[in-house]
């Protein structure tokens, strides 16, 4: 799985999943499950306590809770949440632009807080609640509608990230001033310079969301 | 990035064990490390995720006793803590300007203090000293964001942590756990200017984990002030943090640290000496700013940092006593 390795220097993970299961015992084998399996996991971990925490290598089976649904996928420890969402789960709202925690296009909401999914490892998101803009209200009370109405986009590449950052901000700050919006969504960059429309959309969405 | 093994321990003991090996590296918020791995500047064999070690998070204490901040506390937790903001405006003001909402939600105190320099020659794989064929790439190249002090040495990057400067002014200590005994020392001793290519800019040894930062009670009048390129979500150009002990109207002791001017958090002993024994006025603050620039030796492209340095030191001193004249 070296498709995200433009320089091609990454060696594939090594051990196959089967070897991984064989080599690392019951605690590690069950540790890759979530949800219903947590009880079994706890039991197995208690039994295997002496062997210390599990070490994940090669390919790892993961269940991510995205937009209210459990999604199973196979990733490597180095896979980012962004690449996992887009390329494994076909959830393509978050965009890959800088890939270096600098632009906000990949913003996703993890456990209620906006983060850069390009700089978050998917394996560290097991058990967390992940929201992307696919789950947002697209009706007239929602943030996407306000962006549309206020012309808060041009090429649109930054827009999903802005919409997500806005939604996360408004959920915690329902009555913001313009200055608060500026600070609250300052982790996103628009190459086309649509900031005036974006800020207006955030203010209008704050009002509209109250009508929902 | 290269493939690696991954472990997410939940106890400090397990984390220490897992990090005990030459190819292992700690991961907290990832805002620095993951980008470095993508650029092949750091290619660990094992990544040990520390955010599930709950004992590393948390903020405790009060103004009377001082505060302890876990290395795993997120910058957003530090920014949101009112008691901390009231006791240590210098820390609060430095924290809220870091990066963006997303960065502060992800990044931790430990990661902030131990983030690696942003020098573009380092980030492009030329090492911390950025030497090629015996020559300094920094001196010959684009050094607009580099150091203006200690430039007779080979380490010309600037120490990248805003919080190191604020915490040093506040007299904080750090505690480090590892295979050997736990140790606690002054935060400024966490940093050094490397002299050889194989030396680190941090004094902690491989496998050691930063566990907490302790800020003593009884801070004086303190503040931070920074100059940055527009309102960009970028590192400051120059940032000063001051902590002034007062005897009535007169400054009895001063700790002044500056970011953005040296490969370590820069202790401005000249500015400190200038302000001690004085009342704080626009004139004495400006004189301390002038004094701060003594001994600076800019590189070919960064002399602009000298006036910035003078101004941020002056304004941080005035902000510490509530004079924010530039805002009115
Ligand atoms: C766009 C942008 C703007 C920024 N602006 C600023 C700014 O203005 N001021 C500023 O100070 N910073 C700034 N930063 C840097 C940011 O604050 C740091 O990247 C962040 O604080 C690092 O914390 P982290 O938890 O994400 O660390 P990680 O990336 O997880 O780790 C950083 C380093 O610390 C080590 N480490 C982490 N935790 C521990 C621990 N407990 N013990 C031992 N080693 C550990 C890791 O091994 C790694 O080498 C900015 C970053 C970005 C991307
Ligand atoms: S793609 Fe993640 S911040 Fe730019
Ligand atoms: S609309 Fe083009 S980048 Fe924002």
Characterization of this structure:
The complex is a heterodimer of chains A (212) and B (328). Chain A is α+β, with helices and mostly antiparallel strands. Chain A is 37% helix and 12% strand. Chain A has 3 domains: 16-51; 55-135, Beta-grasp domain (Ubiquitin-like (UB roll)), CATH 3.10.20; 137-212, [2Fe-2S]-binding domain (DNA polymerase, domain 1), CATH 1.10.150. Chain A has 7 helices and 5 strands; from the N terminus they run H-H-E-E-H-E-E-E-H-H-H-H. Chain A has a 5-stranded mixed sheet, sandwiched between helices. In chain A, strand 1 (60-66) and strand 2 form a beta hairpin. The longest helix of chain A is centred in the last third of the chain and has 17 residues, at 195-211. The termini of chain A are far apart. In chain B, 30% of the residues lie in helices and 21% in strands. In chain B, a hairpin with a 5-residue loop joins strand 8 (173-177) and strand 9 (183-186). The mean pLDDT of chain B is 96. Flavin-adenine dinucleotide binds at residues 25-33, 50, 71, 97-99, 103, 106-108, 110-112, 114-115, 161-163, 209-210, 233-236 of chain B.
Index terms:
heterodimer; A: 212 residues; alpha+beta; Ubiquitin-like (UB roll); DNA polymerase, domain 1; 5-stranded mixed sheet; 7 helices; B: 328 residues; Enolase-like, domain 1; 4-stranded antiparallel sheet; 21% strand; globular; binds flavin-adenine dinucleotide; binds FE2/S2 (inorganic) cluster
In CATH, what is the homologous superfamily of the largest domain in chain A?
Beta-grasp domain
Instruction: Indicate the structural class of chain B.
Output: alpha+beta
> What is the number of beta strands of chain A?
5
Order of helices and strands of chain A: HHEEHEEEHHHH
End-to-end Cα distance of chain B: 49 Å
Cα Rg of chain A: 20 Å
Which chain pair has the greatest contact? Answer: A-B, 44 and 35 residues
Q: Within the largest sheet of chain B, what's the order of strands?
A: 4-5-10-8-9
Order of neighbouring strands in the sheet with most strands of chain A: 2-1-5-3-4
Helix content of chain B: 25-40%
Q: So what's the CATH class of one domain in chain B?
A: Alpha Beta
Query: CATH class of the largest domain in chain A, anyone?
Result: Alpha Beta
